[in-house]
Amino acid sequence: MKSDITSRKDIELLVDTFYEKVRSNPELGYIFKDVAKINWETHLPRMYSFWGSILLGEYSYSGNPMQKHIALSKLTAITNTEFSMWLRLFTETVDKLFTGEKATEAKVRAENIARLMMHNIQTA
Ligand code: HEM
């Protein structure tokens, strides 16, 4: 039976599963591989900290995601199409693995941040 997101282990499972999907997605994978040339060994722990801070109150993340995504959008198109796909994969991952208050919060926060990112990219 599925349960809620309650531990660092849950966050790591969520993030790992989500980025597995992202990496093999035709619309998103190349942005990470070819445009940002991501180092997964550093990116994944940053994302554990990001979601751990949002959902578990860890205070372990420091960074400026808005600035990073604006910079990225100058290198490749990041439009409603890419954001919709990102959100679809994120929602699918949360729903496949978890259920509960934190699981819902994860989806709501992702949607709100995505909306703000889109707005900032479009007006940058
Ligand atoms: C189309 C949608 C998105 C794409 C293609 C995308 C892509 C990327 C890429 C390539 C990076 C690595 C940047 C770098 O290290 O140079 C990154 C970092 C990051 N992304 Fe996204 N992203 C998207 C949406 C989102 C959303 C909606 C969120 C939050 C809910 C998010 C949160 C983050 C965070 C926290 C980082 C780490 C920033 C840091 O290094 O501190 N991203 N993203």
From TrEMBL:
Transmembrane segments: none annotated. The lineage of its organism: Bacteria, Pseudomonadati, Bacteroidota, Flavobacteriia, Flavobacteriales. It comes from Robiginitalea aurantiaca. Keywords: Heme, Iron, Metal-binding, Transport. SUPFAM superfamilies: Globin-like (SSF46458). This is Group III truncated hemoglobin. It comes from the Bacteria.
